[in-house]
Design brief:
By secondary structure, the chain is an all-alpha fold. The protein is built from four helices and no strands.
Length: 82
Amino acid sequence: METQTPEKQISEKQKTTAILLAFFLGALGIHRFYVGKTGTGIIMLLLTLTIVGVYISGVWAIVDLVMIVCDKFKDGKGLIII
């Protein structure tokens, strides 16, 4: 019996753009708005208004950046950004 693996569904969003946005404006969550994750983008944006939140969203942005580089980050539709 063969095991079928589903094909990777790839996002139409550009990986390079997502990386640059996450690197330069990551703490503001701009990269999340770009990929269609507006809810978490708003949360990151609001977090930057507080002293403690800046550090939280900064770490969050670094994690997102690593995930984008390693092809593990998905857009708002659940498609992988490559």
